[in-house]
Specification:
globular; 2 helices
């Protein structure tokens, strides 16, 4: 029998749903922070921090596909915008990594 807290029965799936939301926002936060840091760097350091950003966006896309929308960017055709629907915020990423030519 599942334990109750304040009269609410907590199931394993319910706990996973709560944690999933937190994890999605954590990945988005990591991508935003990496993007902000990368803008102030040059050279190889900049590339590595952008890799952190893209890795977080890929994780968000793979783990939470229903929460993410991938939009082509007509101004920069080699990039897409990965938008987290709930946050309403998106970041650019290489199109080739998201199955776009």
């Amino acid at each position: 029998m599942a334990r109750t807290r304040r009269g609410i029965k907590r199931s394993f799936q319910g706990i996973l749903n709560n944690v999933a939301s937190e994890n999605a926002f954590s990945l988005l936060g990591r991508a935003r922070t990496a993007n902000r840091i990368a803008k102030g760097l040059d050279g190889e350091s900049r590339q590595r921090v952008y890799q952190v950003k893209v890795h977080a966006l890929l994780g968000l896309t793979v783990r939470f596909p229903g929460r993410v929308q991938i939009v082509d960017d007509s101004n920069t055709p080699k990039f897409v915008v990965v938008v987290e629907k709930i946050a309403g915020f998106g970041l650019h990423a290489p199109a080739s990594l998201f199955g776009r030519p």
